[in-house]
Specification:
Shape: globular
Radius of gyration: 40 Å
Strand order of the largest sheet: 3-8-4-5-6-7
Structural class: alpha+beta
Largest sheet: 6 strands, antiparallel
Helix content: 10-25%
Distance between the termini: 82 Å
Number of strands: 85
């Protein structure tokens, strides 16, 4: 027997699961944390449930080192031991995780003493009997040892070192392998034990618990760098790149760098320290005295810093201190040193001492010139750093620094100093290594396991090889292929920053959880020949699929259920691991996952490690994994199917995959299941473990079956199965007639011949493109001549390479892009041959699938083909396959959601045919006035002149447009402007550039035309009678209110009249091309049809080009038109106009008429200087316009938009303010308007009117806060008055800081004497706060003659502000939503009660300076100030403030309440009276009988439960087996039950009322629902259990909202299949039914739900599985059905009833 309880006996053999590994580089030891798998897993699960209700939380600084306690981490309580206490910081050791943790007393609690009797779940071991051969572990050893977590082994226990519970564990298979590969040596058992004792600094006798616990925090006591124990320095991974800011430079070997990603957190901490120490003089703490003590020190710049004493304190003197966050040393007066508050110790130090790698001083001191040069290059600069090596004894990182342009700073300094570069044999051989381009542009689409710089639990390993195939091109100072630490990865990609990143105390920046996180997704390792029962969880191909072992099926299901419950309410947190939890976008469920690739957007590729699928997931749906979910190893292991015909080649034909699917589905549905036989173990192209396997059933083998099928198929083939060496393979992609597929249309020749790619093959296409890009960078083979039908790589006009096939060599070299279905003429330099060797690009079948539309004529008009091409190319559809042609083309129905495109095509053909018939009949007849002869083409009459488009072509044109942005967007058509105003505007002519742009667009059109000429395409419209002309047929511009557009000013007259043209000219180029083609048709337009507002094509005389125009007026044979895509006007001869085809009418105008917002012409005028200045401000500059209103222009038939303009980060509207002259007072008397109160042009007379009539004031122009109902927000209370009036401010202050900065800038503007007169109640403004002389956004509440009373809307406090201390708000500050919002506590109706006088102070103390979580339930406008007020629930330090405040609430008197309150009020409101309650009891129909949510039970879904209350088969309660929610409810119930009794509350209770009730048997509070009541008691059902009880009225309490929001944890059931109207139960059933269910895990499936007739709860008819048996079947023997005669008579009687 074991002499040590809870530990294995020395000499015994035990199974172990390794969870974490730590290497000791100096002593050569390996430390393991293991889970002893001794069948006690259920005991630990029960213990984890038990500790979720702690005995008592810590009250202040309780506890001492050595005490056992509970700690709250990620919403879960864990067992812990206190190691040490410094100020408010507790250093703990987590008993069941075997790792350290740092926290404060707020997260600690005492637990029941018996919960600590159970031994730790994770034990500490030393891997026995071998040591490293070298000072540091060899790379091969490191890689192998770091792969051990997650693996199970049988180990031999050699010794147990007590009292410290350290086990010397021999793993023969591990030690044998280490010695075999030559990286370790065997040590005799006794010698090894002595060495361990010596290395651990343990005496051979007994050592203290505290000493051992300190060693548990880090095994490398003598080997690691010494840090002051009160500051935490995360250790960095070497051979990784980071972005840093250099804070101090002394010489090349003494440089301090701060990780840039944490610079904001450091800055926030600095601000907090400044406020803390400047605002308090006597902190009442012991003064730091000794060298090395942490302290707060005020530097010579007046700022407070986290510091360390560098010498002992001496009275009345100055001492030297070291500022840890800057790396600077200063001499500071003793009076400027204070104790460091514990809260400033929590954040780790992210500033590291560095030395330039490869730079040595050769024994001489550094000259001042050299150090000055180095400072000029580095100090306060942001650079990229590679951490090459960590010198632990000296505590310095040797680094290589890179400038923003990628230049190596080490090299430039060596050259400057005239030093010799280091030799290749030295460790610093990487100084001239360029930064991998991968890092310069973030992580990129690389698989994590293929990255040689892996992020592992041990930082001593170095990369095995450098990354290949990367170009060292600098982009923004970052690269792609090398990951930084986990925290850095995610912060960079997500763009988010967090002041206190999730970093644990294990000393490694990259590991925020136990090391098993890093290795939790390692694949299962099986020995060759092993057989395991499996389920195939995911099939990508026969070369890549995933299996799960069935032995852990129940464990995985339980884990998945726990994941859903835990992460349903978890908030996003910074990620520090690649292993995580991610929400599957397909079904919304949470899965354990590993990040395998990141992108240039907040999206990552993750692999679900328990199933095998890879999905793209937004970062907002990714969470750090809680350590409690790592008890189960990753369940999916990667496989490929063994090929018995060729064991060295595991490839299969396409036909084999569907056969394999059938085999798997058949085996999975059978009782015997599937068995996996491991044939070999290798790695895939991503360096992931790959098991070569056969899948078997008892009667068959997948390998054999598929080999036979393929052999049979080969025998029937008339051609050899091999693909010719110079040809692609083609696949039918297993598409069957009648099947449906999601596709992406890539190109179209016509409706009967177009191409698509299958959505399910996108991963294959991506692999092909990756392979193409790789191969194109290799040396090209020149001995393979190319000819017709040769396969090749072809370069498209976007300069990218794709798979191609040569169609013809002359007269033009033409290539078919086989994965898109398009053919294009190219240059000889744009093709290169395939390499002769086998590759992915050669073997993957062609991805373009030919399609034709079903039931569409073989010949259709080109305009329909063109419409289809525009509609379909580049979009996703669903195809339904109707037939297959011999050449492989699929005849399909094309579905766009619910729209059938085939039907749409047929409708268009029908309408065109009808229109053609009508046109023929009218040919020889005069036009009449009848509307039926109007020939202006409608929206269904297509006259498209575009050539066939393609996806690649769209991309190309877009890139061409952007690349020539200067020509296409700035040099617009301009001319001598003729306007109705008398303003003189400079003439500008740029006709030439329009012609150049037109030529460029035409040159880009290089696709084959498919045999359709331009003459076939264009059909001009017929003239129409003027009585029926639609004088304005252009669409309106695509402008949305409050939306910002990127534009150029194309025509500038004045601030009230100018035109803007979209910066994106893609549509403009299309319109221009069509206009030239139509304009050259030489068909004059009938003059009678042209009236003001008529659209037409007009020839612009300056460049003889055709443009879309609109008639403004006409005189004889001259038309005055406006060119609606530019805005300029011109006189055009009538013979130079053409009718517009429908295709040009359907394109919205590319320019729109504007006027500056905020300047009402009825209330002022412009200074004469404005026109030239306004023109010069806008001309030829990129602008951003935001539309605020729209009106029709009075003179021309177009819309005019009032806009705000931003030009080069300047508000043009604000700039033009100085040219505006407000009108005199009589203007306002004539037309009082509701003007923008921020405009300075309003006069005093108008202001008087505004004050009198508030209805005419724009009382609040701020946006509403960004608050969503029922969404939780992290806030602080910024202004606290009382529970019905307090303000909350967002905890994330990024927007607030931005607003504050803009406010200070705007406040410096000169005072406008007119502005204060425009302000009335509700007006927004900037106001100077007298206490700190800073400017803040404010809103006027009321005004006097000399001052305004305002509320500062970003904080909530109010103040009187002198009239001279207000300024107008610029638009940029109006656009930002308020950063604080007005609140009141939810659940307290002021019409039904009032607060106790003591409430205000206690409410203030509860909230002030504490992080809060608020949930909004409602919103109303406040009655006195024009802001919304939100009814909220507040959580503060785990307590619901609404519940705490309940004791201060006094309901109104009975008589008053009964008169005011309707009878059907919420029964939990204390305002209800006895008279009201009487009415409720009499009339149940007027009651809200149940306020609880319904249980989370779904029809036909299995739930794992226990029977919590069993009465009989028609009445029993089931409780969820997962008790996490139940534990939470229980904890909240105990807290709420401690509130004082409200004597009014019991009188409000009636049947169906929810409440808290005290259960007499255990004196605990539970949620309950009243069934009925008497004078002294209520009979209740406990809705989380199902049992009933009589409860004294004094033992009931109201339910807080938090407990009402939680669904019941039990639900009422009856057995399905037993209708009580058709039978009854035998008397013996109840006892047998009870014994069958009690205390057993059950699975219930719900079939129906009805309300129970006696208690107001739903009752579910269910089927129960218990221990493999269906209970409903077992109970049939107790059921007595009605006799047949009686039943028949009864049925007949009911049938005859009328």
């Amino acid at each position: 027997m074991c002499s040590i309880p809870g530990l294995p006996t020395p000499g015994s053999e035990v199974p172990v699961l390794i969870t974490r590994v730590n290497l000791n580089p100096s002593c050569g030891l390996v430390e393991l944390w293991v889970n002893m798998d001794d069948g006690r897993k259920h005991i630990y699960e029960q213990m984890r449930e038990d500790i979720q209700i702690p005995k008592k939380k810590f009250n202040g600084s309780e506890g001492k080192p050595g005490d056992l306690c509970l700690v709250h981490i990620s919403d879960t309580w864990h067992r812990a031991r206190i190691v040490s206490i410094q100020s408010e910081t507790y250093n703990l050791f987590l008993i069941d995780q075997g790792r350290p943790h740092i926290t404060t007393s707020e997260a600690l609690a005492w637990g029941q003493s018996d919960i600590f009797l159970l031994s730790p779940e994770i034990e500490t071991c030393i891997l026995a009997n071998f040591l490293s051969l070298e000072n540091n572990w060899h790379q091969r050893a490191t890689k192998f040892l770091e792969s051990l977590p997650g693996k199970k082994f049988k180990g031999h226990v050699q010794h147990v070192l007590m009292p410290d519970r350290t086990i010397l564990l021999d793993l023969p298979i591990v030690s044998k392998h280490m010695c075999k590969i030559g990286v370790a040596k065997k040590i005799p058992v006794d010698e090894f034990k002595c060495l361990v004792l010596k290395c651990l600094h343990l005496p051979k006798g007994v050592t203290s618990e505290a000493e051992r616990t300190t060693q548990e925090l880090n095994l490398n006591v003598s080997c690691q760098r010494e840090k002051h124990e009160q500051y935490f320095y995360p250790e960095l991974l070497t051979d990784t790149f980071e972005t840093v800011k250099v804070t101090e430079v002394t010489n090349p070997q003494n440089i301090f760098c701060t990780l840039l990603i944490f610079s904001k957190a450091v800055k926030i901490l600095s601000e907090q320290m400044q406020q803390h120490y400047e605002g308090s003089s006597d902190l009442g703490e012991a003064q730091p005295q000794t060298c090395g003590d942490p302290c707060a020190a005020r530097g010579i710049n007046g700022r407070w810093h986290r510091s360390l004493l560098k010498q002992n304190m001496m009275s009345d003197s100055a001492v030297e201190v070291f500022h840890v966050d800057e790396g600077k040393t200063e001499l500071v007066a003793v009076g400027d040193i204070k104790p460091l508050h514990g809260k400033f110790l929590r954040m780790p130090v992210f500033t590291y001492p560095c030395s330039l790698d490869g730079v040595k001083d050769n024994g001489t001191a550094w000259t001042k010139d050299l150090t000055d040069y180095l400072k000029s290059q580095l100090l306060n600069q942001t650079v990229t750093v590679k951490f090459v090596h960590h010198n632990i004894p000296q505590d310095v990182y040797y680094v290589t620094l890179y400038a923003a342009n990628g230049a190596c700073i080490n090299s430039s300094f060596i050259e400057k100093a005239g030093l010799f570069p280091p030799s290749d044999t030295e460790d610093s051989n990487v100084q001239n290594e360029p930064i991998p381009s991968s890092f310069l542009s973030s992580l990129g689409d690389k698989r994590c396991m293929n990255l040689k710089n892996k992020i592992n639990i041990n930082v001593n390993g170095s990369p095995e090889e450098t990354l290949s195939g990367t170009k060292n091109v600098a982009v923004n100072g970052r690269t792609n292929d090398v990951p930084t630490s986990g925290a850095d990865d995610v912060h960079i990609e997500d763009g988010s920053e967090h002041p206190y990143p999730l970093i644990q105390s294990n000393g490694h920046l990259s590991t925020g959880f136990p090391s098993e996180v890093q290795n939790s997704c390692n694949d299962n390792v099986f020995t060759v020949g092993r057989s395991v029962n499996v389920e195939v969880s995911y099939i990508e191909s026969l070369q890549k699929f995933w299996c799960q072992t069935t032995e852990n099926g129940d464990s995985l299901r339980r884990l998945m259920q726990d994941l859903q419950n835990h992460y349903a309410s978890a908030h996003p947190q910074p990620l520090v691991e690649f292993t995580c939890v991610a929400r599957n976008p397909d079904n919304g469920m949470w899965y354990r996952a590993r990040i395998v690739a990141s992108h240039h957007s907040p999206v990552v590729d993750v692999r679900f490690i328990d199933y095998g699928q890879t999905r793209k997931v937004p970062l907002r749906d990714v969470r750090p994994i809680d350590p409690s979910f790592l008890w189960l190893n990753a369940q999916a292991f990667q496989c490929c199917l063994f090929n018995p015909k060729n064991p060295t080649d595991v490839t299969w034909t396409d036909a084999a995959l569907p056969e394999f699917l059938k085999f798997v589905n058949s085996g999975a549905s059978s009782n015997s299941g599937l068995k996996c036989i491991v044939k070999a173990v290798t790695t895939d192209e991503e360096d992931l473990l790959l098991n070569v396997v056969d899948i078997e059933t008892p009667s068959d083998s997948a390998c054999k079956l598929l080999a036979q099928k393929c052999a049979q198929a080969d025998a029937h083939m008339q051609i050899p199965p091999q693909v010719p060496p110079d040809a692609y393979s083609y696949s039918k992609h297993n598409i069957e007639v009648g099947g449906k597929e999601k596709v992406w249309v890539t190109s179209s020749e016509n409706v009967n011949h177009f191409y698509c790619q299958l959505n399910r093959n996108f991963h294959l296409f991506n692999k092909v493109m990756e392979n193409v890009h790789h191969l194109i960078g290799q040396p090209q083979c020149t001995d393979h001549p190319l000819g017709p039908n040769s396969i090749c790589f072809a370069r498209y006009t976007d300069n990218q390479w794709y798979r191609g096939q040569i169609v013809e060599m002359s007269p033009k070299l033409t290539v078919r892009f086989v994965d898109y279905g398009q053919t294009l003429a190219v240059n000889e330099s744009d093709i290169c041959p395939f390499p002769p060797e086998r590759c992915i690009a050669r073997s993957v079948p062609v991805q373009a699938v030919p399609l034709g539309l079903f039931s569409v004529p073989a010949e259709v008009p080109q305009e329909v083909n063109q419409w289809f091409a525009d509609y379909a190319i580049g979009h996703s559809f669903t195809i339904s396959v109707v037939a297959k042609e011999a050449n492989g083309k699929l005849i399909v129905e094309l579905l766009d959601g619910s729209l059938n495109v085939n039907v749409k095509i047929r409708e268009r053909l029908s309408k065109i045919q009808q229109k053609t018939t009508v046109g023929v009949q009218q040919t020889d007849q005069p036009l009449s006035n009848s509307s039926q002869h109007v020939c202006v083409q409608n929206e269904d009459c297509l006259t498209q002149e575009l050539m066939n488009k393609s996806v690649i072509k769209d991309i190309t044109e877009e890139s061409q447009i952007h690349s020539s942005n200067g020509m296409c967007t700035r040099d617009k058509l301009k001319m001598s402007l003729q306007s109705t105003t008398n303003v003189s505007v400079p003439e500008r002519e740029h006709g030439k550039t329009l012609d150049e742009r037109r030529k460029q667009t035409v040159l880009a059109e290089t696709f084959k035309q498919g045999g359709h000429s331009d003459s076939e395409i264009t059909q001009p419209s017929l003239p129409c009678p003027e009585e029926n002309i639609n004088i304005y047929m252009y669409k309106k511009p695509n402008i949305s209110l409050n939306k910002t557009e990127d534009v150029f000013a194309s025509c500038i007259v004045s601030p009230h009249y100018f035109w803007c043209q979209y910066a994106n000219t893609e549509d403009l180029n299309i319109v221009s091309r069509l206009a030239q083609e139509v304009g050259h048709q030489q068909q004059d337009m009938t003059p009678k049809t042209l009236h003001p507002g008529s659209p037409c094509l007009a020839l612009f005389s300056n460049d003889n080009q055709w443009y879309r125009a609109q008639v403004i007026q006409r005189t004889d044979n001259t038309l005055h038109v406006v060119f609606i895509d530019y805005g300029n006007e011109s006189d055009v001869d009538i013979k130079n106009v053409r009718p517009l085809p429908q295709s040009l009418l359907e394109k919205a105008p590319q320019a729109f008429l504007c006027s500056l917002n905020g300047f009402d012409e009825s209330k002022g005028s412009w200074d004469d200087d404005v026109y030239d200045n306004f023109y010069n401000v806008l001309v030829d500059k990129p602008l951003r316009v935001t539309v605020f209103g729209m009106e029709n222009h009075t003179e021309i038939e177009v819309s005019q938009y009032s806009v705000q303009i931003e030009c080069e980060n300047m508000g043009v509207n604000d700039t033009m303010q100085k040219y505006w002259k407000p009108a005199t007072e009589h203007v306002f008397t004539e037309s009082p308007q509701t003007e923008n109160l921020l405009q300075s042009d309003q006069t005093e007379s108008n202001m008087t009117h505004l004050d009198v009539s508030k209805g005419n004031v724009n009382s609040c122009m701020y946006k509403n806060p960004n608050i969503s109902k029922t969404k939780k927000e992290e806030v602080y209370a910024s202004c606290i008055v009382e529970p019905h009036f307090f303000w909350c401010q967002y905890a994330n202050t990024e927007e607030l800081n931005k607003v504050s900065r803009l406010a200070q800038e705007a406040g410096q503007e000169e005072q406008d004497m007119m502005f204060p007169k425009t302000l009335g109640p509700g007006s927004p403004c900037l106001a100077l706060f007298s206490s700190d002389k800073q400017w803040y956004r404010a809103q006027v509440i009321h005004r006097s003659d000399v001052a305004f009373h305002v509320v500062f809307i970003d904080y909530g406090n109010e103040s009187d502000v002198d009239l001279k201390n207000v300024r107008p708000l610029p638009q940029s500050l109006l656009d930002e939503a308020p950063q604080a919002f007005l609140c009141s506590l939810n659940g307290f109706d002021q019409s039904k009660g009032s607060w106790d006088d003591k409430v205000d102070e206690d409410f203030y103390n509860l909230l002030v300076d504490k992080p809060l979580t608020v949930t909004v339930f409602n919103m109303d406008d406040h009655s006195e100030i024009a802001v919304p007020q939100y009814a909220v629930e507040i959580e503060c330090e785990g307590v619901v403030a609404n519940a705490v405040m309940q004791k201060y609430w006094k309901p109104v008197a009975k008589e008053h309440a009964s008169i005011k309150n309707p009878p059907n009020e919420n029964l939990l409101q204390f305002g209800q009276t006895e008279s009201n309650m009487t009415h409720l009891c009499v009339s149940k129909g007027n009651m809200n009988t149940s306020l609880y949510k319904e249980p989370n039970v779904f029809k036909n879904k299995k739930e794992e439960v226990y029977a919590s209350c069993i009465v009989e088969p028609h009445f029993f309660w089931c409780q969820y087996a997962n008790t996490e929610e139940l534990n939470k409810v229980s904890r909240l119930a105990q807290e709420a039950g401690q509130e004082e009794q409200d004597i009014m509350f019991p009188k409000t209770l009636g049947p169906g009322s929810p409440c808290l009730a005290l259960f007499s048997s255990d004196k605990q509070w539970y949620r309950a629902q009243v069934i009925h009541r008497s004078d002294v008691a209520v009979h209740v059902v406990f809705i989380d259990y199902g049992n009933e009880s009589d409860v004294d009225l004094k033992n009931v309490r109201p339910l807080p909202q938090s407990l009402l929001d939680e669904a019941p944890q039990a639900f009422l059931c009856s057995l399905n299949g037993f209708d009580q109207s058709k039978g009854s139960w035998d008397d013996e059933v109840d006892e047998d039914f009870y014994n069958l269910l009690v205390d057993k895990p059950l699975k219930v499936t719900v079939f129906n739900m009805d309300d129970h007739s006696e208690i107001a709860v739903p009752q579910y008819t269910v089927e129960i599985e218990c221990e493999g048996a269906v209970v409903n079947t077992l109970m049939e023997k107790y059921w007595k059905g009605q006799d047949t005669d009686h039943a028949s008579a009864e049925n007949l009687g009911s049938a005859l009833d009328p």
